[in-house]
Amino acid sequence: MTTADATAQPIDSQGMNYLVSLPRRIVTIYLPLGAFLFVLLFPFYWMAMTTFKPDEELLSHEGNPFWVKNPTLAHVKKLLFDTPYPDWLWNTVLISVVSTALSLFCSVLAAYAIERLRYRGSRYVGASIFLAYLVPPSILFIPLATMVYQLNLFDTRLALILTYPTFLIPFCTWLLMGYFKTIPFELEECALIDGASRLQILVKIVLPLAVPGLISAGIFAFTLSWNEFIYALTFVSSSEVKTVPVGVVTELVEGDVYHWGSLMAGALFGSLPVAALYSFFVEYYVSGLTGAVKE
Amino acid sequence: MPSASSAFSRALDNRNVLGLLFMLPAAALLLLFLTYPLGLGTWLGFTDTKIGRAGAWIGLENYEFLWSDAVTRLALFNTLFYTTIASVIKFALGLYLALLLNKRLPFKAFFRAVVLLPFIVPTALSALAFWWIYDSQFSIISWVLMKMGLIHRYIDFLGDPWNARFATIAANIWRGVPFVAITLLAGLQTISPSYYEAASLDGASPWQQFRHVTLPLLTPIIAVVMTFSVLFTFTDFQLIYVLTRGGPLNATHLMATLSFQRAIPGGNLGEGAAIATAMVPFLLAAILISYYGLQRRAWQQGTADK
Predict the structure, then answer these.
(1) Please, what is the average pLDDT of chain B?
(2) Among B125, B183, B189, whose Cβ lies nearest the Cβ of A270?
(3) Is the complex ipTM more than 0.90?
């Protein structure tokens, strides 16, 4: 099964659906679907409500908790001006962009070599890329922490930029291998006969044809690095270099009195950028997700 | 010199040389930061390394200690319990949601996009939202149940061992169902509608269509999706770290969180690495069982060539 299928027109597999009456459809389809959507989206709704609720409403057991009576920006203001949150946002953007770009560069070359140059042993390398994809960060972070320390990278952004590719490269390479596979060999053969070098073929023929794959891999890698937690928690300790997920969890949770408003504001604004990016590229994201699984 | 440069360009025409050159950046990063730490982690598990102090080889001592350590045993039980319950429910709900989304629906693309949101946003941040939803004094769930008259006291979601286990499992399911549903939906969309038409002309009930058409054709992708799902769940860290830090009474400690706790705040890198290494056999077993088990069934039914 090729990755191109993932973006193909969905086939309506219930060809005789029209035979089912409307009341029946409501009970068997719309009600369960509504329940799913409610549960899946409620935490986000709750994040947003909490962000804009004044403290009195948050800590009161009276009234309707599902709506906010006197919306306030106090929590957002506190988050943006009294905490290092803007620094964390900047760090997260910087680290995600650089590690994604680095991983894409490495992955394009590797995927092209494995899939198209077919050098001796490339099949085994391809299989080991898949295995590398299955290695979870939770078993790598301790040895990586000792390495980061020995390389004098502890508490630097570079530590994260260099370690994120360990899960990004296997993923991107695997995904791009699937895309390169769908590009006809004949195009490359023509170019070879015309005297193009392999590098020219890669840059001028293969990459333009693989743009959807590059976007999928890029978007996916960006959200993976944005969401990364355990490495960022372990390899960084000063506030100035923390990423949003780690900063919010370790620094906004203070003492016994939780500032739920600013905490939820931090969670909301840390989620919005990836959600926005995702909403622009849903199809690419989904094809990246399903493509990586289906190969 | 022309001869030297032509020898160089001839070498670049050789696919083995060029292949090696192209592999270099990826291979260097992966060997240095993936393969080497894998080995280093295993080695650390056999030493008494502490933070700030190089360790000496102590053989199996870490593993002997961990085997007799009640907390580690509890963490192992928790991890298996967490993984099993969460994966089974994620599969059931994910498949159900995928089947619903595969029906003829208005705004189908919109629904599909929205459903995936829990999977997109940082888990640490959505876990914070769950932390607030599970709060012992201001939980919205408790509030609703109180108003409905079903309970008389606020539920202590994260303070009681079994409540905490199920609360964390629920949050994990919330995050995992979209992944299972969307990937299975992609599988469902590749099944030709003509199979269903043929089956319904032969008088097959919806259940029989599902059992004898959908399920066999979906088995290969179910195998892969569930392998990933089990892998993610078994090695889960962020959700537990944010919601409970392993508490109460270590009731929600997973292997990953315990290994972090012992290694980083506790300073016993060797012991933490041993716990992390101990996860590997379980992971391999999970991969082998879910992958080959289901793969072979698919092969017997003649759909191996996907």
Answers:
(1) 87
(2) B125
(3) no
